[in-house]
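Reopening this ticket.

The earlier resolution said the output was attached, but the attachment link was broken on my side. Pasting everything inline this time so it's all in one place.
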Amino acid sequence: MKKSLFKFTAPALAVGLALSAHGGVSAADHKAEKAEAKENKAQVSQSFKKGSDVSHRLVPVEKKVFSANDNLVELETELVGKESLTAEELVYFQGQVDSVVGKLGAATNQLAAVTKKFDENSTEVIKVEVAIGSSIDAAQLTQQYLNSLEIVEEVPELEEPEVPTEPEPTEPDEPVIP
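Inline output:
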């Protein structure tokens, strides 16, 4: 029984002795230590938050860029091999290019807002800037390709009119005699 009591009291005794070693420290020194520890904790916390906030705030910008890139890939897939477009097709494809450019403009504006609050020279920000620049270049190339295509009039397909066919005269069936 004495051994088990010692097992429980030994840790408490060790903690009590460790805490009593600071008993001779004056109240002013204790307050200064506490303030310094609090300041250090705030600095570490703030530096951690800044890094995570930049990454967190760049996520929506990256999503816009990825979405714009996906739209560009779909658009380029549809345009590959086309030598001419109808006016309706041109309007459709031009709308798609304009949509991509609009998304990239929104991403640029959102990135500018993020860089006002955080370091614009951080590697994460620079990577997103490069991605936006590359996407804008791709959109411009798609626009140039679209402008190079010939516009043709849409020729409606004429259906040949059906020639009415008259039913062939059939010979009357012979009357059946019972």
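Reporter confirms the inline version is readable. Residues 1-27, 43-51 have pLDDT under 50 and may be disordered. The helical segments are 2-20, 27-79, 87-117, 123-148.
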